[in-house]
Amino acid sequence: MVDDGMENSIEELNSRFPGSSLRFVQGKNGLVCCRISNAFGKANVYLQGAHVVSYCPHGKDEVLWMSPESMFEPGRAIRGGIPICWPWFGPHPGDNRFPQHGFARTCPWAVRAVLDTDHSTELFLGLLDDEHSRRFLDGRFDARYRVSVGSELTVELSVTNTGTDPLRSVGCALHSYFAIGDVTKAYVEGLEDIEFLDKLSGQKVTQSGRIAISDEVDRVYSAAPDPIRLIDNVKERMILVSSQGSQSTVVWNPWIEKSKRMTDFPDDGYQSMTCIETANALKDVRTIQPGDTHVIAQTIRLADLSGYEPGKK
Ligand code: TA6
User: Fold this and answer.
1) Whether residue 175 lies in the annotated active site
2) Which helix (H) or strand (E) holds 11?
3) CB-CB neighbours of 313 under 10 Å
4) How far is the CA of 74 from the centre of ligand 1 (A)?
5) Which candidate in 51, 156, 277, 294 is catalytic?
6) pLDDT (tens digit, 9 = 90+) per residue, 123-145?
7) Cα 175 from Cα 191, distance rounded (Å)
8) pLDDT-flagged residues of the chain (< 50)
9) Is the C-beta atom of 250 inside 6 A of ligand 1?
10) Fewest Cβ atoms closer than 10 Å to its Cβ: which of 22, 47, 277, 286?
11) In what order do the strands lie in the sheet containing 84-85?
């Protein structure tokens, strides 16, 4: 049941939300997908999980990585694109029977509005608490997700506490998978000198220099500098990531062994992707008081490498 009480058909969605740059279509395995296409670019968003699965600025290559082995099964997380990890990041802090990364990414979100303007096409999705969410989160909420396709892509999650008790220790990650030409020729810049938790060793470390990836990387940095740059020397581009409402950034590449262990992830998938995630993780989890709203957002834009010098701000 989606939050407006209606299971919308494709036809109903297209008649309820007419937009010249946006159409609802049948996606994989019967899941509904919203196709956005305007002068700036294209993006595809599945209603399950409010999941952006593709973003292509006009005339450019795909920005987001999608596993060719992602199942696109109802109720199962899609592997790639921008999963919404909410209302916790990682394993549930209190009950290991709960799904990793929360329940928002496997729920059907409702279409609330669409907006076509001269500078962007915006899709507004919503998720309300229900008997399913109350199995995992004792609280009332109204979650709204805005996907804006313009000269850049912005995804913004606004959560209002509609209950009478605080929503405590709410974690989140806009868990973006970025497509790169060759991970051994890509670098992440912008997190220099920032402390991170190395989830593999459990150690706290300070980042020295830019991030080069030559093994499994699973790190939670204790800041969200603006911008973080993913340098791709094969596609000769950089992906710039800016965050709002976040003071923690996750960088993840599963490398060889973990890639093999994931059933919806090709064994060599680690070579062509890296995740940079705008998060509220570890100490950056948030408490949302009754009536208050927390907003977290990630903005993604492409630039070429002309004039780029390694490490230059
Ligand atoms: O954000 C990195 C991470 O927490 C990794 O530890 C890895 O588990 C990844 O998320 C993917 O998680 P998922 O539940 O989507 O397989």
Assistant:
1) yes
2) helix 10-16
3) 7
4) 19
5) 277
6) 999 999 999 999 999 999 999 99
7) 17
8) 1-2, 5
9) yes
10) 286
11) 84-85, 172-179, 273-280, 248-253, 217-221, 195-198, 203-206
